[in-house]
Each structure stands twice: as structure tokens, then as C-alpha cells.
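for the writeup, i need someone to sanity check this before i put it in the appendix. the sequnce is what the collaborator sent (i think, or maybe the updated version? ugh). structure was predicted straight from it, no edits. if anything looks off just tell me and ill rerun, i have time this weekend
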Amino acid sequence: GGTYAGNAVSCAAAVAVVDVFQEENILDNVNARSKELFGALENLKTCPEVGGNIVDVRGRGLMVGVEFASPSYPAQDPVLNRSAPKSLASRVAKRCMEKGMLILTTSVYEVIRFIPPLNVTAEDLKEGCEVFAEAVKEVIREA
């Protein structure tokens, strides 16, 4: 066997995971929570307090990115906004951490990535979206 051959223990673990996905309706939960997450983030994007500082909400399922405008992108970049606060993504992520929520920034772009567990409850997702919205609004007000 090689690294691509089936290992009995690994195969049994994979079968157990598939069983849990089916028994606990994980994909139904992902679809429902995804709609809620995208809805909350799109509402935040259009919020007057945010004022165009969120330029994109994208992703699939529960892996979602929120891109902020930046005053330091190259001149040809469509999300360049000279009046946008600097380092929004990292400042929002730091504020979320101060409020008890861990969230990831990505690469060199002003993007925050949501990756909650696939079995996240509606209540926990709502709380996370509220923390994120508060953090975004606070950081923008301070800028």
C-alpha cells in the first residue's frame, strides 16, 4: 500500500463522519445558517453607519469572506477608497477578540473570513453576527 491506499481505521472514521452528517442533519443546518449569515452580513454592508466600508460579502455555505474598502490598495483596484479607515480587517478582528469572538483575517487584502462549525446553532450564529456588527461600527466610528 501507499499513501493513497485505504486504511481500515481511516475508512471506518470516514463512514462514522458520514453517519453523523446524516443523523444530525448537518447539511440542512449549514444551508439554514448560511442564509442567516449572508443575510446579516449583507444588512451590515448596507447599514448607513458602515457607509460603504464593506465592499463585498462572498463565499459558500459557512465559509464567508467580508472585504473592506482600503485607502492603500493600488490605484486601479476597484475597492480603493482613499477615505476608508486603514487596516479595517485587522482592527475589526482585534475588536472581535476583545469581545470574546475569534475571527480570521486573510492574506494581504482587507478581508475577514467566517468559518463557524458546521453544527453552529442559530443562537450562536446570531450572537456572532451581532458581535461582528458592533465591532465594525465601533472601529469605523473611531477612525
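DSSP finds four helices and four strands in the chain. The two ends are 59 Å apart (CA to CA).
thx in advance!!
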